[in-house]
Amino acid sequence: MKDNTHALDPAKFRDPVRTAKGEPRASVALNTPQTLWFNTGTLCNIECANCYILSSPKNDALVYITQAEVIDYLDQLQTRQWGVREIAFTGGEPYMNPEMNAMTRAALERGYDVLVLTNAMRPMMRKSVRDGLAALHADFPGKLTLRISVDHHSQEMHDVERGKGAFAKTITGMEWLRDAGVAMAVAGRTIWGETEEQSRAGYAALFARHGFAIDAMNPAQTVLFPEMDDSVDVPEITTACWNILNISPDAMMCASSRMVVKRKGADRPAVLACTLLPYAPEFELGETLEQAERDVSLNHPHCAKFCVLGGASCSG
Ligand code: SF4
Ligand code: SF4
What we know:
This protein has 316 residues and is an alpha/beta fold. The protein contains ten helices and eleven strands.
């Protein structure tokens, strides 16, 4: 059996066209645009042990995006006729951004569903933000969903990841959202040595205790993410992998979405291939949506590990 636990081979993931073995590297076309993501900025009110984007109260590598910048991309969406269904916002903590509710409104006014990823803690619970959320829900009922990060269904494990007292604050935020009638989903992690079944049962019990209308068995409403460990070796993805694994390139996130970010010091935002690689320069496709329509070469270990293989193996 192949040992995949050794360090990443430095010869891999170097050439966007060929793998280390000289085989043609797989790429993905933007065939089914569904979601345009905006990163609202990397600042966060807390610093989690395993934040994939390294957010913290000090990390402003990605600065606050503005309502005017978001509107410019919404205009581009119309011009380019991508036909996306959803506008999604992630951070950092999106409710640190002072224009978060204004940006949400701009997207809702154009008819999109809006998804906001949040920890539902203090930034969201400030009165001005709560008032804004209540108004958005009243004006656009059923169109706004907040996806709350609940790393584990127990207070003990969640707080190991997020700091003492974090779980209680998030639950308070979720209770407010419940009472306000704002739709919720949850993002959890699968790092706890539980089976998926155990994990979903734990979330179901938590939701039942608090009367949260979230389906723990539905992977779209309770999303469980694996850990991103850059240190382990993974095979490269060749064009032959799609057939071997019987996976369609259209199932990859970069076939259906892009993410707009604003880097510190940059004059304008940039468009990235997906939400998973915010700091990899090769996955920055340009400043405009038109430039971001080109194919994405799967030249990063994340592409193999999280998107294509999901634990399977087809080469290397
Ligand atoms: S709350 Fe989210 S964005 Fe903030 S540090 Fe934790 S994982 Fe990162
Ligand atoms: S990590 Fe790679 S395969 Fe996955 S969505 Fe991003 S660019 Fe596509």
